[in-house]
Amino acid sequence: MVNNKHIATFILGALAGFAAGKYANMSEEEKEKMMNDLKEKANKLKEEAGKTAEQAKDYFSELASKGKEAMKEYFPEAEKWFNDIFGKKENPDTEEQSSATGA
């Protein structure tokens, strides 16, 4: 049974073979030019990826601060509520001892 994965693998293999054959038939100058072009494109891609990562970081930071402000606006007790749920809990044994001694 042949599925899409097999077809894609065959096509990629055929393209790789064609590219290898074409590269083998290139002159040294053509090979050098092609490698320089590939390096240049890779560097541009790397720069764009870095810029995108910074933009994403800024976006999520802004989203977090705006979300926090919106939460405070629409649910003013949110911070207290989250602290009650997720905040550090005292040890129940310590609470009982402090209430028994009046401390």
Question: Which keywords apply here?
Answer:
103 residues, mainly alpha, 4 helices, elongated, coiled coil, YtxH domain-containing protein
Blueprint (SSEs and pairs):
Layout: H1 4-24, H2 28-74, H3 78-86, H4 92-101
Any overview of this molecule?
This protein has 103 residues and is an all-alpha fold. The chain has four helices and no strands. The chain has helices at residues 4-24, 28-74, 78-86, 92-101. The radius of gyration is 31 Å and the shape is elongated. It starts with a helix and ends with a helix. Keywords: Coiled coil. This is YtxH domain-containing protein.
| Straight-line N-to-C gap | 78 Å
| Count of beta strands | 0
Radius of gyration: 31 Å
Multimerization status: single chain
The helix content, as a percent range, equals: over 70%
Uncertain residue ranges: none
Estimated structural class: mainly alpha
Brief sketch in words of this structure:
It contains four helices and no strands. It is mainly alpha-helical. The termini are far apart.
